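Run log, item B.
One chain of 373 residues. Sequence copied directly from the ordering sheet:
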Amino acid sequence: MTINFRDQAVSGVQKLQPYQPGKPVEELERELGISNIIKLASNENPLGISPKALAAMQKGLTELAIYPDGAGFNLKQAIARKFGVNANQITLGNGSNDILELIARAYLDPSRGVVISEHAFAVYYISSQAVGAQLQIAKANDSTSTMPYGHHLSNMLNAILDNTVVLFLANPNNPTGTWFKSAELYAFLKQVPDRVLVVLDEAYTEYVTDPDFPDALPWLQEFPNLIITRTFSKIYGMAALRVGYALSSPEIADILNRVRQPFNVNSLALLAAEAALSDDEHLQRSKDTNAEGLKQWQAACVEQGWEYVPTQGNFITVHCKRSGVEVFNALLREGVIVRPIANYGMPEHVRITIGTQEQNERCIAALTKVLAA
């Protein structure tokens, strides 16, 4: 008898659609035989890694035969000092995606429910479905809202059932760039039942310029059910190294560290992340580049009559008024990689990372050409 090993997989995994990353430059070079490609698809920092982080990695190259510190002591101490938390509140991950997986593994199973918003980061769905959790998808704001396509907090509250254990919330959200102000998010947290873990994904928080954006760190003391996740992949320019972290109560951190794989963050990533936290100059330069680039994109959208979603991230989501996949494919032939987001329920949009001034100019010109065709 021939065994179908797809059928042997657990039911949640059988139903999964794999995560679709941004198209690599090398793949496009192979497919179309073109060069001088720019990739604005994965919300990477166009300035790259911090010089201090790069120097720290170079010093660590002689120790690659030795396992990393499985507890990540030095990095935890650096995070604790910078953000005013205790080291026992920190969980380190192989990117913040790893943290999301740890939360799902530790707290979800087929008898338990999870609430996720429409148009939210795909890994919330993937990690929850892989463990067979019962998904409740809350309807997002409509396109006419002041925060179009953003999370609708009342709908998320209404989606909480008796078996709900985890609620995933992004601020700002990917792929929309939408966000919550302090008062509305605080009021939401006050209404969430104490038994429900609220996972607040702040992968893009360093890019935010809205003065009324919430500082959620002090809320960890008031809301023991709050978990804040962050990453070094975005503004710190360390996407290839895969390091992120969670801040929570010590009790939650203890549980997450029980299911965390040993040595899940490599030695070079630990060194680089610790050094990057002290490089305020690179952080500010990255913020300034993004703010200037976002103004550049917003001005182009107004000039060209393109609709876009308000954003506080390092990306902008543009309504193409036609298939986003078709626009994506046409841009590939111009040597520009962006991100179609039909898989996020937005089939006529593309998400575009804010690059350098030159990269933005080239992408704006290519998009103008494609949408005029």
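Observations after the first pass:
- Residues 51-276 form a domain with the Aspartate Aminotransferase; domain 2 fold (CATH 3.40.640.10).
- DSSP finds 15 helices and 13 strands in the chain.
Flagged for discussion on Thursday.
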